[in-house]
Design a protein that fits this description.
Blueprint (H helix, E strand, L loop, with lengths): L3 E6 L2 E8 L4 H8 L2 E6 L5 H9 L7 H5 L3 E3 L5 E3 L4 E12 L7 H7 L7 E12 L1
Antiparallel strand pairs: 1-2, 2-7, 3-6, 4-5, 6-7
Length: about 130
């Protein structure tokens, strides 16, 4: 997941991420009540690029990147190599409404009309290396 933000909503610490429905990640986001965001160090830019350009349907990213999968207390998987991990419990899910997206944004980011789904998660665990 490359697009996200942190903040506070409903007096809760939250992380919001955006996933297109055709992404392999979408299947996991829909199937689970929790998700994790692993922030890799700057030294791992090549790894992050591979993760952002190759689908997990086509390549085993864990193996290709040499990741070690760990499990949060709530059961959500994350990567031990991350310098920061946020573990979230899904609190709200909403497809983006194309009628509310400015035309210039739609032209640039959604030429195929493949609008993101927004997942708002309450941060329930955090790990820092």
């Amino acid at each position: 997941i490359g697009w996200g933000q942190l903040g506070t909503l409903w007096n809760l610490p939250v992380c919001t991420v955006y996933v297109r429905p055709e992404r392999y990640t979408y299947e996991f986001m829909e199937a689970q009540d929790t998700f994790s965001v692993s922030v890799l160090p700057d030294s791992a830019r090549d790894i992050a690029r591979l993760c952002g350009t190759r689908s997990g349907r086509e390549v085993d990213k864990v193996k290709e990147c040499g990741f070690t999968v760990a499990q949060a207390e709530c059961g959500a998987p994350y990567f031990e190599e991350a310098e920061l991990v946020l573990v979230c419990r899904k609190r709200y899910v909403q497809p983006m409404d194309p009628d509310r997206i400015p035309e210039d944004v739609k032209e640039k980011w959604y030429p195929g009309q493949d609008y993101h789904i927004m997942y708002l998660g309450e941060i329930v665990e955090a790990y820092q290396r």
